[in-house]
Amino acid sequence: MWTYRNPVQVRFGSGIFSDLPTAIAGRRYALITYPDDYFRALAADLGGKAGAPALVIDDIAPNPDIRLLAEQTARFAALQDQPEVIVALGGGSVIDSAKVFAAARGDFAAMEAFLKKRAGAETLRPLPLIAVPTTAGTGSEVTCWGTVWDAEGGNKFSLAHGGLYPEVSLVDPALMVGKPRGLTIQTGLDALSHSLESLWNRSANPVSMAHAVAAARGVIATLPRLVADLANVDLRADMARAATLAGFAFSNTKTAIAHSLSYPITLRHDVPHGIACSFSLPMIIRSVADQGGICAEGIQAIFGATGNAAAAQLEEFLKKLGVSPNFHDYGVDDAEFRELVDLAIGGERGQNFIGSKESLLAAARLGADPRKAVA
Ligand SMILES: NC(=O)c1ccc[n+]([C@@H]2O[C@H](COP(=O)([O-])OP(=O)(O)OC[C@H]3O[C@@H](n4cnc5c(N)ncnc54)[C@H](O)[C@@H]3O)[C@@H](O)[C@H]2O)c1
Ligand SMILES: [Fe+2]
């Protein structure tokens, strides 16, 4: 038995950004974006067509931190007239911040109680959200959750509420042509991780698998060509499509062990999210080699192989992009990696994983008996 549901309307295409005033439809709106000139120019263009926003929050920093989010939410509280819709123009950090503002409606304490203790879920009424992703990676434009970081406390929280699905997402590949090489690789690998994570997942189902296979095949076919031709809008469109499809895949499963492993690596070793959640993918493919079902079917459909042969292909792919599949290269030693596997398996996302701690350690060549490690 399985179910699949995703209520987001996606409007996709080069130039679809011009639909944004229609999507706002005369409502009082808050605009959330980055401080860079490129985004300021887009905001000015929007203001000219949709009227001035009720509030602009344009100091979004990568990996939205709980302290800055509290301060930004207070700017909503100070408004006489609350916005009727929130427009997120940016990557995952912008869309996830917008989800926090939508859930808080100016009351950060209520949002925080829900975020940390799941308190008040029944009274949380998030504002409607319009997402315009400018990275092809997080899939946040079609999910109902957002990642909130607490750098000081060394923590990461996941905001999740059915009311946080954007009502509309405008996916415009033309907005992505200015992404530099490093960011293109990081965000593309984040999307690959989302698709594979939805396969070795307790909530995997035939619809999520179909999206995951199409997404992973899209990333693998496109990313190496795109990094050699960053201004190519057709390749940007292929990557944007793959990232949104990966979003549809994990919108119903959440992520799993690779993301669970990644959060402390980002917090402790400053490794960007897209790299931290993808370098371990070949190792995880090896660790699920004995699993059947949707996981095996999906991996076979993507790589034409499972187990070692699929993992070796993915290792080659990562290395060609300059990404090492070896945790030592991120400043993590054997002892720390064992600790991270323990933490990850016990973590919220780790519990979605269909594999075992033992098979992971063996695939990482950290098994009790190294001779038993999978070659
Ligand atoms: N909600 C989810 O389901 C989900 C999934 C995965 C990751 N995340 C979170 O998303 C965040 C990462 O988001 P991201 O990878 O999209 O990056 P980001 O939003 O953090 O942006 C990173 C940098 O890219 C720049 N940038 C963005 N778009 C650009 C463009 N079109 N041209 C040039 N520069 C551009 C920004 O100015 C910024 O400096 C992390 O906090 C991560 O934890 C959320
Ligand atoms: Fe991710």
UniProtKB/TrEMBL annotation:
Residues 184-345 form the Fe-containing alcohol dehydrogenase-like C-terminal domain. CDD domains: HEPD (cd08182). Keywords: NAD, Oxidoreductase. InterPro entries: ADH_Fe/GldA, ADH_Fe_C, ADH_Fe_CS, ADH_Fe_PsrA-like, Alcohol_dehydrogenase_Fe, PhpC. Transmembrane segments: none annotated. Its cofactor is Fe cation. Residues 7-173 form the Alcohol dehydrogenase iron-type/glycerol dehydrogenase GldA domain. Belongs to the iron-containing alcohol dehydrogenase family. This is Iron-containing alcohol dehydrogenase PsrA. It comes from Paracoccus angustae. The lineage of its organism: Bacteria, Pseudomonadati, Pseudomonadota, Alphaproteobacteria, Rhodobacterales.
